[in-house]
Model the fold of this input.
Amino acid sequence: MTIPIHWFEAFNSGFEEIDESHKRVINEFNKLIETYQLKDVSQLDGFFQKVIYLAENHFAEEEIILEKHNFPDLKNHSVEHKETIQELEKFKSNLKNIAANEFVNFSLIYVRDYWVHHMFSEVIEFQRFNQTN
Ligand SMILES: [Fe+2]
Ligand SMILES: [Fe+2]
Done:
């Protein structure tokens, strides 16, 4: 069983609007985990499609917020967003080679941990900016 993500204080990035957006993604993502876990590997394509949609929306929202705050490293940050989407797309396109249903939960865990990592890396990056501005 894939454990859902819970928001906790350590995820605070120093940007309230970004934290709100991260919380919305967590909520949506937890719903997806519930829907997809223990399902057939053939459904993972749909799962990844939804995850990519969530990530793209979040990244677009975040870039607008960072621009508003004159975040100096926005260009690199946007590149990282694009790379993240590419990585998820790649993972999704490799799915057709995998037949084992056990892989379903692995995929959910992969995306969940990916998202936790995303939020933690932003805590470090954004808080450094917020402390000096
Ligand atoms: Fe980001
Ligand atoms: Fe983010």
About this structure: The pocket of fe (ii) ion (ligand 2) is lined by residues 18, 22, 58, 62, 118, 122 (CB under 6 Å). The chain has a mean pLDDT of 88. The chain is about 75% helix and 0% strand.
